[in-house]
Amino acid sequence: MLRPHLTAATLLRVSAEGAATALVLTVQTRTGDAASAGFVQTAMLLPYVVSGPVIGHALDRTGRPRRLVVALACGYTVAIAGLMLSAGRSPLVLVLMVAAVVGCVEPVVVALTSLLPRFVPPERLSRAYGLEASSYNIAAIAGPGLAALVAAVAGGAHTGIVTVATAALGLLVLPLLRIPPPEVRPGRTRSGLGQVVAGGLLVLGANRVLRALTVSTMFAWFGYGGFAVAAVLLGQDIGAGPAAGGQLLACFALGSLVGALASSRWLTPGHSERAVSAGLLGFGTAVAALAAVPSLPWAWGVCVAAGLAEGPLFTATLMLRQRESPPDRLGQVNTTGGSLKIGASAGGAALTGVFAGRLGAEGLMLSIAAFQFAGAAMWLWLSGAGRKDGPALGTRPERRSSHGCG
User: Fold this and answer.
1) What does 182-204 look like in DSSP terms, one character per residue?
2) Rounded CA gap, 62 and 3, in Å?
3) Distance, CA of 105 to CA of 101 (rounded, Å)
4) Is the pTM of this model over 0.90?
């Protein structure tokens, strides 16, 4: 089941990763004003904060997870098609409403990760999580790349085709999955929306490792939110032009892919905590080095190194969430953690827009690195390196030990 899972998940993630690029190119071609695409992207992100935990909560409890996943993926495919058709043609208010619908169903691309323990044997979970992290990295490269390729060949107005097509292909593969219901079915208690949305937060806050992981990665992603802007400015500063920023982002994504694939071979849940601190420190060191690179080839190499550090960090994040989460809350923890990281990244991007002119590429890179080091410090402090906690709230001890996590 892992192969069809990775195929469907990767195709849906390629669509989601390419949506922003396709949207900007589409709006620019149709209206001549790409700035309005920023409002549409915001409308896509905002619902994620609530819809992510709700979708995770539903997947943790439904007895027919495949039916729910297919329905959500179908909703995403239809909504993204409607968005690409209406963007730049329909009134902005209508486009924003369609974008909000996309944001309500898009968290399914993250929620799929929480289903892995249901059909992957415990002894193969480490490799499965490494491949899952690679899926995100492949999508980060292929999504924007395919959108840019279609724009170059057929024009910017047609870039939405690749976003819709990859979503549709992923939707066609999903019915091939055989997803068992959750092992632990919670009692039939009624939960209000506030409890559903906050359920993942309660688990993240109650467990020492998850709390440390969430805070440290939020620090890291707040800094990373400004990386794209800093990369463009760096390209200008070293005389390669702003287009070099895209090359640097591609090099980073390539390094992340290689790092995630490598970690699928050697990283185990027992070593994942050390991988978090090593990944944050390595990523921060590489980004700080970008402030001093003399030419574009050096920048390429350093960005690959930064990605090599980030790949295992992401794999370790997935492993720790699975290890520490209660069996009936894993989906909610994954989607809530993802929502918090996206929110932190959006805040960092906004702050970068304010200070980019004053700090320049050097200052931005050093600031981004500082947030990685702060994240590593928060991880070491909050996780209490060397201390052991009892099981996470609601976690069965035998489940954790069966994964070799103690």
Assistant:
1) PSS--------HHHHHHHHHHHH
2) 23
3) 7
4) no
Q: To which H or E segment does residue 20 belong?
A: helix 2-31
User: How far is Cα 138 from Cα 159, in angstroms, rounded to an integer?
Assistant: 19
The CA distance from 38 to 33, in Å, is: 10
What is the model's pLDDT at position 397?
33
Distance of CA 101 to the CA centre of its chain: 19
Report which residue type is found at 350: A
Exposure string over 114-123, b if 16+ CB within 10 A, otherwise e: bbbbbebeee
Q: What are the two backbone dihedrals, phi and then psi, of residue 267, each rounded to the nearest 5 degrees? A: -80, 130
- Are residues 339 and 48 in contact, defined by beta-carbon separation less than 8 angstroms? yes
For residue 147, what are its two tokens? 């959108």
Q: Which two tokens stand for residue 196?
A: 């559903």
pLDDT tens digits along 71-95: 999 999 999 999 999 988 889 899 9
DSSP tag of 391: P
Sequential DSSP letters for 219-256: HHHHHHTTHHHHHHHHHHHTTS-TTHHHHHHHHHHHHH
Task: For residue 111, give both structure tokens.
Answer: 């929620």
Q: How far apart are CA 366 and CA 321, in angstroms?
A: 29
Q: With beta carbons less than 8 A apart as the criterion, state whether 277 and 216 touch.
A: no
**Across 45-54, 74-83, 185-194, 257-266, least confident range:** 185-194
Element (H, E) at 148: helix 125-154
Place of tokens 């904060």: 49
> In whole angstroms, what is the distance from residue 382 CA to residue 376 CA?
10
